[in-house]
Write a structure and sequence with these properties.
eight-stranded mixed beta sheet, about 250 residues, alpha+beta, L,D-transpeptidase catalytic domain-like
Length: about 250
C-alpha cells in the first residue's frame, strides 16, 4: 500500500510538472510572449525575489479601480496565507461611466469578482488576458438578452469596456500571469471596483443621482473590497439568487 501511494504521488508530481512546462513552453513558442519574457523576465524575477516569492510557487491576484485608473498586482507563495502588493499600473484609457456592465454595447467596464479565463498572445491589442464576464452575478442582475463579452486586460491605449495598459506594462502583467499558471495556479482572481471603496468614497458616490441607483450593488461590492483590505486574502465568493456576493 505504501509503495502504491508513493507511486501515485510521484505520478501526480510528474503530471503536474509536465502540464506546467507544456503551458509555459507553448506560450514561449509565440514571438510576442518570447519578446515579453526577454524584456521583462529579469525584472519579474527581481520583483518576486524582493518580495521573497518563488517563481515556481507564485500565485497572483489582480485588483482594479475605475475612478483611480489603476490596476494592482498582488502576489504570494502558494504556501503563504496573505498576498503582498507587487506593483501598481496605470490604466491608460477608459470608456463608459461608473456602474457595472449590463449589456452588449454599453461601453461599460464590468464591476465585480472575476477570473482570468483566456491567455491571448496574438491579440489585436498586443497581449491580452480575458475575463469571465459575464459571471454568475452579472447574469442574475441583468435582464438584457445579450450581456456582451470579450472583456480583457490588454495592451495599447484604446478600449471599449476593457482595462488597457501600455504594451510595455501588459508584457509584465501577462508574464506574471503565465508564471502563476505555470506554477499551478488554477484560477487567477480579478476584482474590479468603481473606486477605492472606503466608507467615505462610498457615501459620496451614493449621494449622487446616479449613485443612488447603484447603492445596494456597491454596498454589496464593498464587502468584497473590505474583506481583502482587512485580511489580504481573496476569499471564496458565492452568488445568491439576486446576484449578490457572499463569503
Amino acid at each position: 500500500m505504501k509503495l502504491n501511494f508513493r507511486f501515485l504521488l510521484f505520478f501526480i508530481f510528474i503530471k503536474f510538472n509536465i502540464y506546467s512546462q507544456t503551458f509555459l513552453t507553448s506560450q514561449l513558442n509565440n514571438s510576442r510572449v518570447k519578446k515579453a519574457w526577454t524584456n521583462k523576465g529579469s525584472s519579474i524575477k527581481k520583483l518576486l525575489s524582493d518580495k521573497k516569492i518563488s517563481t515556481d510557487k507564485l500565485e497572483i491576484f489582480i485588483r482594479a479601480f475605475k475612478t483611480e485608473d489603476k490596476l494592482e498586482i498582488w502576489g504570494k507563495n502558494k504556501t503563504d496565507l496573505k498576498y503582498v502588493l507587487l506593483k501598481t499600473y496605470e490604466v491608460c484609457a477608459k470608456s463608459g461611466v461608473l456602474g457595472p456592465k449590463m449589456k452588449q454595447g454599453d461601453g461599460q467596464v464590468p464591476e465585480g469578482v472575476y477570473t482570468i479565463n483566456r491567455f491571448n498572445p496574438t491579440s489585436t491589442y498586443y497581449l491580452s488576458l480575458g475575463l469571465n464576464y459575464p459571471n454568475a452575478a452579472d447574469k442574475k442582475r441583468s435582464k438584457a438578452k445579450d450581456l456582451g463579452g470579450d472583456i480583457f486586460i490588454h495592451g495599447k491605449c484604446v478600449t471599449i469596456g476593457c482595462l488597457p495598459l501600455t504594451d510595455e506594462w501588459i508584457e509584465e502583467v501577462y508574464m506574471l500571469a503565465v508564471c502563476a499558471k505555470s506554477a499551478g495556479q488554477k484560477e487567477i482572481p480579478v476584482h474590479i471596483f468603481p473606486f477605492e471603496m472606503t466608507e467615505k468614497n462610498l457615501r459620496m458616490a451614493i449621494h449622487t443621482d446616479f449613485g443612488k441607483s447603484q447603492q445596494f450593488f456597491w454596498e454589496n461590492l464593498k464587502t468584497v473590497y473590505s474583506y481583502f483590505q482587512e485580511n489580504q486574502k481573496v476569499g471564496v465568493w458565492k452568488v445568491d439568487v439576486l446576484g449578490n456576493y457572499s463569503h
